Amino acid sequence: MQFETVIGLEVHAQLLTKTKIFCSCSTQFGAPPNTHTCPVCLGMPGVLPVLNRTVVEYAMKMALATHCRILPRCRFARKNYFYPDLPKGYQISQYELPLGVDGWVEIETEAGQRRIGITRIHMEEDAGKLIHDEAQPVSYVDFNRTGVPLIEIVSEPDMRSPEEAAAYLRTLRDILRYLQICDGNMEEGSFRCDANISLRPAGSSGFGTKTELKNMNSFRNVQRALEFEVRRQRALLEKGEAVVQETRLWDPGRGVTVSMRGKEEAHDYRYFPDPDLVPVEIDQAWVDAVRSGLPELPDAKRERFIRQYDLPAYDARVLTASRDLADYFEAVVADFPQPKTVSNWIMSELMRELKRDEREIEDCPVSPSHLAELLQLMDRNVISGKIAKAVFKEMYETGASAKAIVEAKGLEQVSDEGAIDAVVREVLAENPKEVESFRQGKEKLLGFFVGQVMKKTRGKANPRLVNEMLLKALKG
């Protein structure tokens, strides 16, 4: 029997507010344990939460960017469950009245674009964090993360492969980062994903029994966990056995999922409206104000780069992967209006150095104006392409400008025909056998002669003139 995979994702994105969702404690990552807490986020008796307005506006931005309909009235609810890192014994979330519903995003697949539906986007507070002691069987609780604002983005079960799930996650992260409301860091837990996956007979419209996957902290691990689960469930179904509805953890070391607990349903959490928080009323004027502040989003920017700069789709996709990278590209093009050349240098020389140092573009030591200056020097034949690459490496390492490096090291390209002619004649005189072989038909030796001239001029001779003058001397 052939089976079809059905995947839906629940994504939690930590919002980049300075303070928590219901109190004024800091949201800064990496502080000593239990130093960013107060009676409100610790759930002490008698305290009252107060909603952070910025959280609502950030959530509205994501809802609008993903084509959701913003409800005029949303309400917070208590989601009741016990866990050591949940001090109140419940989480403040949203249930029957979320902020946004009925949205969608487009993802790129091998078969082209696919639209993935978004069921809802709602606001909630984060729980704390358990730190497990490797030396003894105890765990410690850090409540710093308790009350940090999240939005949960719940997709429709529209994905049909682990690859599509990974593409959907990347699309969401790109949008969040463009909006500058979440840093998208999966390793630090500010962008997290739970996956629901089931298999059904191909052609069936019903759904199979789903399992929920947790503990996936990278796009690669999400895809690997889903691929393993597809194999596990298919093997069970082919043997006539039932898939158990449960929550499973991904073990990246062993490359397997393991059972954690039975899967909870909504009624298990005993949701009810939070009596300490009034419903949030959102009028059209507020929605319009937030909409007017939205930046150009990844898909729109990608299409504009193709249209405005005549770039290939691949280049546009790479350059718009982050808002900062796209801004960097446009800043260079403003000073050096040759988009394809700029694209090539960013995607090769610049991104190679950034990847090696694990740096983001915003930390790049080569400013857009300095890169434009380097390309101008190369375009005017002041330096050769080979020297330009060497100059770029020094620019990256020192932060100095191209012009300063070229002048300090005397790297200006030699375009004086008399000087080049003298070197050409010297090279030919030193290699009479090769000259004779060339004239007998071994024209591939031209590269050898070019190399010798460039070596004698320390790479500074104009390559075009070198080729022209060598051919003239060899065939003359």
Q: Could you characterize the architecture of this molecule?
A:
With 476 residues, the chain is of the alpha+beta class. The protein has three domains: 3-288, no CATH class; 296-409, no CATH class; 417-475, Arc Repressor Mutant, subunit A. Helix content is 40%, strand content 21%. It has 15 helices and 16 strands. It is elongated and about 95 Å long. The relative contact order is 0.10. The mean pLDDT is 92.
Strand percentage lies at 15-25%
Note the total helix count: 15
Structural category is alpha+beta
Q: Tell me the major beta sheet.
A: 9 strands, mixed
Mean pLDDT: 92
The N- to C-terminal Cα distance equals 75 Å
Shape: elongated
Please report the total strand number as a whole number. Answer: 16
The percent range for helix content is 40-55%
Computed over alpha carbons, the radius of gyration is 30 Å
Q: What count of structural domains?
A: 3
Q: In terms of per-residue confidence, which ranges show pLDDT below 50 for 5 or more consecutive residues?
A: none
Order of adjacent strands in the largest pleated sheet: 2-6-7-10-1-11-12-13-14
